[in-house]
Task: inverse folding
């Protein structure tokens, strides 16, 4: 018996000792020396963890954040939107508006794809036609929904013609859904293109282990400044706590999206770099403006005054995020940053309710999907509104049904979010507040204000940036006053970096560039 | 026996996926889809056909090896699941070895010294293993072995050592049931006359216990191990989540939430097949270890 136990103990110790080493970082090949380049830096690889696996590296087959974060490294877009949301030349070096529906672009010369092909205007035409073709079923097709046709003028010149004047088009051409593909590579691969994506970006695709990670390697024939890292591995780690742990063990260099609890803990320990970056997202509670009593503006304004949003940001969001003073994030081009939003004032709220003829409050429901943060927000809203006599019942609705029923206008109040992915006010306002967009396009509150419609149309069609800006600012003031929403918060993301990582600059849209990141 | 079980299981899953409200077409196209786009996609996906027809199509295609395409990724379901199945089998196997190793060894020891401090401690520890939530055990293991000691990787499936922590987290939950079964089976067998005979023949105690008693006690134990293995194949969802292990369980849960009907049906079918194969394997093992059963078959 004793022999058995000691044998067991010895075996366990041997076993543990034998499997001692951590997984090594992938071996990198020696960098190619170049007579003109500065002293060759030490080769290194980056491991980046995000909360989900990619869906596809064909930009026409996926439009989700995890996929876009990787396609951003493999492909380029015609226009480059930097971290301050300024538009700069990308694959297109110059552009001019020919008439109100036509833009002409000059394509950069001698740009190579990862397969050796040279970029031509015909690649651009092929890419956009495939994107908007209904047969492709591209989830990102709507980004180019205004495109009527692409005309090739010569190998380095082409024109985009829109269905109606569409001023935000330049910002849309910086979106990952419009990444430029190589016609030859796509046609040759057919159905299997997503397994071997080919772009012009600073990194080329190496492999994808489904459910686990994507491997990329530096593309040395890149047209721009070459990437610093030799290889990049994007790992999918679903659990927030596991992502944080991997940053602490050093197995991962960068983590996108740390959860607030982990952020608090790691802030105190000070072993990693923690960055808080504002995003283009906004969270709101929408009213059904066509259903009583939310058809009365006093009621909507009252609820905005009755809610202590700062408390929600502090206790539910753990201070990751900021109270919203306008329907769009302050970073968006066209945002009215002078608006003050609604102040927390329960007395005023009661006054407004009385004015609407409802001095004793009323009963209503709030819908949320099963997102834990949203459910907590619903609870806080319920308890705060009770103080002014509004009795809110919370209904948790499954996501698919949630989208369908709010699109049909069956709700009273609902919690939702919106991301202004293009960084342009048109995207953040048109679908949500224009009366032509009721239902699934985005306007689930069924809000209609003719002046707002006019201003949003002006913003969309005017070729003059100053005019656009003024129209959007006025529209936001009107929307704030009309309160089709209970304005909650604009978003923030927490990213974690190992000490020694430099060169990381977060992009508000979430598709951070990796090529300039350096690891000491 | 296997075939009716598979039909039953797949019909159940099929019904459940279709009864719950959300619409896969809406989930695929996203919030901005128009009614026409939704109708068109539903038509293409065959969602408008009557349920029995949809089920029949599924069965006919499955027999040919075609489990359809994932609604989310448009890749063949068989490939999506096939890519992840080896990881799940690896994890389930090692976890089962952990569970069986601990369960049988400690079960034997407990049975040989029943109601002593050793027996009571061992049983309590095993029960702790069952009572401890999977994710908590997983997190504790990560913190101790990956963060504090740096001996093992905290997540992922890269490298041979990455399977150790998830297998331990997963296996300890099942060790107790194997331990209890081994213990009670052994206690039964030890009372038998032939054990007394073996002892009076002067055989070493170790031979008596392992060659004679354990071998006879193994039949129910192997049944339990087989059931445990079948359960581990499909049920490692939480462990897969905590350790970022790219297996079928986590993938199936994601697919259920996204209403990816084809993937869920295909995954359930595959797992049912595997569970059936495991049971078959268990029957074969009986024949190997128990000559009485072998004799039944050869008659």
Result:
């Amino acid at each position: 018996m004793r022999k058995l136990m000691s044998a067991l103990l010895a075996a366990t110790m041997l076993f543990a000792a034998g499997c001692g080493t951590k997984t090594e970082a992938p071996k990198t090949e020696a960098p190619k020396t170049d007579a003109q380049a500065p002293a060759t830096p030490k080769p290194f690889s980056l491991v980046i963890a995000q909360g989900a696996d990619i869906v596809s590296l064909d930009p026409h087959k996926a439009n989700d954040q995890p996929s876009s974060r990787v396609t951003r490294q493999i492909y380029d877009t015609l226009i480059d939107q930097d971290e301050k949301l300024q538009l700069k030349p990308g694959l297109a070096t110059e552009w001019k508006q020919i008439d109100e529906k036509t833009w002409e672009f000059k394509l950069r010369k001698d740009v190579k794809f990862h397969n050796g092909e040279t970029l031509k205007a015909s690649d651009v035409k092929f890419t956009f036609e495939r994107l908007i073709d209904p047969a492709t079923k591209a989830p990102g097709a709507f980004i180019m929904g205004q495109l009527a046709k692409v005309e090739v003028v010569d190998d380095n010149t082409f024109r985009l013609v829109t269905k109606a004047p569409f001023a935000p088009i330049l910002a849309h051409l910086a979106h990952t859904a419009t990444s430029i593909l190589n016609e030859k590579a796509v046609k040759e691969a057919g159905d299997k293109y997503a397994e071997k994506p080919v772009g012009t970006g600073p990194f080329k695709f190496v492999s994808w282990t489904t459910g686990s990670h994507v491997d990329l390697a530096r593309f040395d024939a890149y047209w721009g400044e070459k990437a610093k890292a030799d290889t990049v591995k994007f790992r999918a780690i679903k659990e927030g706590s596991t992502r944080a742990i991997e940053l602490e063990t050093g197995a991962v260099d960068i983590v996108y999206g740390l959860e607030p609890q982990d952020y608090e803990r790691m802030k105190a320990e000070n072993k990693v770099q923690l960055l808080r970056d504002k995003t283009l997202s906004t969270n709101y509670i929408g009213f059904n403006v066509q259903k009583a009593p939310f058809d009365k503006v006093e009621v909507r304004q009252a609820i905005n005054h009755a809610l202590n949003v700062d408390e929600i940001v502090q206790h539910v969001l753990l201070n990751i995020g900021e109270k919203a003073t306008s329907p769009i994030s302050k970073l968006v081009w066209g945002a009215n940053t002078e608006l003050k939003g609604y102040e927390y004032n329960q007395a005023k709220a009661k006054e407004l309710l009385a004015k609407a003829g409802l001095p004793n409050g009323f009963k209503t429901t709030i819908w949320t999907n099963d997102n834990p943060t949203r459910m907590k927000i619903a609870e806080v809203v319920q308890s705060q509104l009770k103080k002014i006599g509004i009795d809110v019942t919370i209904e948790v609705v499954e996501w698919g049904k949630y989208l369908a029923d709010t699109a049909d206008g069956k709700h009273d109040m609902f919690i939702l979010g919106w991301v202004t992915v293009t960084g342009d006010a048109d995207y953040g306002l048109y679908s949500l507040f224009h009366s032509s967009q009721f239902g699934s396009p985005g306007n689930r509150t069924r809000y209609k204000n003719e002046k707002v419609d006019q201003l949003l149309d002006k913003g969309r069609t005017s070729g003059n940036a100053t005019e656009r800006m003024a129209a959007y600012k006025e529209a936001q003031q009107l929307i704030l006053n009309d309160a089709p929403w209970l304005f909650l918060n604009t978003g923030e993301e927490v990213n974690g970096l190992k000490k020694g990582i430099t060169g990381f600059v977060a992009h508000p849209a979430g598709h951070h560039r990796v090529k300039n990141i350096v690891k000491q | 026996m296997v075939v009716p079980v598979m039909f039953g299981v797949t019909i159940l899953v099929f019904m459940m996926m279709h009864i719950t409200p959300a619409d896969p077409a809406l989930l695929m196209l996203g919030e901005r889809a128009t009614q026409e786009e939704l109708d068109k996609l539903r038509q293409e996906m065959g969602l408008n056909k009557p349920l029995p027809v949809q089920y029949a199509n599924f069965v006919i295609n499955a027999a040919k090896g075609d489990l359809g395409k994932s609604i989310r990724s448009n890749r063949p379901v068989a490939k999506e699941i096939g890519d992840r199945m080896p990881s799940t089998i690896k994890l389930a196997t090692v976890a089962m070895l952990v569970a069986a190793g601990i369960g049988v060894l400690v079960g034997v020891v407990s049975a040989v010294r029943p109601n002593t401090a050793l027996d009571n401690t061992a049983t309590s520890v095993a029960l702790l293993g069952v009572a401890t939530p999977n994710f908590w055990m997983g997190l504790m293991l990560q913190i101790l072995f990956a963060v504090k000691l740096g001996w093992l990787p905290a997540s992922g499936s890269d490298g041979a050592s990455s399977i150790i922590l998830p297998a331990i987290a997963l296996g300890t939950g099942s060790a107790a049931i194997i331990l209890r079964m081994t213990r009670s089976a052994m206690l039964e067998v030890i009372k038998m006359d032939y054990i007394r005979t073996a002892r009076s023949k002067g055989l070493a105690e170790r031979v008596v216990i392992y060659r004679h008693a354990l071998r006879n006690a193994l039949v129910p134990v192997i049944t339990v191990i087989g059931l445990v293995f079948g359960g581990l194949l499909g049920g490692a969802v939480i462990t897969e989540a905590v350790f970022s292990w790219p297996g079928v369980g986590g993938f199936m849960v994601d697919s259920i939430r996204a209403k990816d009907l084809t993937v869920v049906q295909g995954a359930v079918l595959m797992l049912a097949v595997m569970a059936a194969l495991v049971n078959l394997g268990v029957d074969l093992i009986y024949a190997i270890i128990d000559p009485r059963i072998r004799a039944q078959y050869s008659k």
Summary: Residues 30 and 43 of chain A are 7 Å apart (CA to CA).
